[in-house]
Amino acid sequence: MGRDNPCMPAPLVNDSFLRACWRQPTEHTPVWLMRQAGRYLPEYRATRAKAGSFMGLATNVDFATEVTLQPIDRYPLDAAILFSDILTVPDAMGLGLTFESGEGPRFASPVRDETSVAKLEVPDMARLRYVFDAVTSIRRALNGRVPLIGFSGSPWTLACYMVEGAGSDDYRLVKTMLYARPDLMHRMLAVNADAIAAYLNAQIEAGAQAVMIFDSWGGVLADRAFQTFSLAYTQRVLRQVKTVHDGQRIPRIVFTKSGGLWLEEMAAIEPDVLGLDWTVNLGQARARVGAKVALQGNLDPNVLFAEPPQITAEVIAALESFGPPRNPDGSNAGHIFNLGHGISQHTPPESVSVLVDTVHEQSRRMRVSA
Question: What is the DSSP secondary structure assignment for residue 211, as one 8-state letter?
């Protein structure tokens, strides 16, 4: 995977995202957006129509490459993120993933009893070759413009879908298993964690320059249950994921939606970056954990439905909440600007231009005046 390999792309032109992950100085605050390749872009909708379905899009290397690069071509973003889905791993376990129009993901074979849990095992990564081929293709197509982020769902978040069989309003089935049969839940989570680690390592080997774990449903857990059934297994993933590949350090990002209560505990499992949702005050989060990890976030996605002056004001407020790039002791505090969750499919594309431009312009001004 070295630079002397003619199959690999050029060195990075814009490495501000990676430098921010390592809490190193940057000329501006880097920005990318969760779900930045998605339905709010007309070019994405056109490509998805050609693919015929979401999985037709995600499993086709050329289509996945095309849609990953669409927001990079449209906006001066500082990172690309692989176009895929968090449920590819349980799908590779044989649970039968489908996406019904208007209903979201669904599994044909949910995991709800002792027999189905006992059958679970880390899947053959060859079943996910389409993902790794897409990573390599995207990395080449980026040609060093910006870094590429790979990702997976967290062990707990995957378990929610695996037990419920689809999205849920109350998580009744998965929480029933958690409390009534914690032995089954622990086994499922252990298999999930080991599968996710293998999956992320394969993405890194294919060309991902950073990886992110989406603990989308960690925040639905009670205190103590979060630490036992989510955080411990995210830590199990981190302990197995590569921190260096081909001589390059690989930052690892952890994002728990509604996880602001547990920031110190999340920092203690030693990710390189903590993602924050919009309920967390950036400045307070920095005071709590910023010396240990970089922070990513955290504009409310619905800000993007306001007019440009309001979007600009909210972006500036978030940057000012995080504060100056340097800590009082002179060390650098890493901040990657992002939304507090994925961008809405109804977002006007021009609103994203306002956000990205404001982040770059205002953060440069803040560095000049610091």
Answer: E
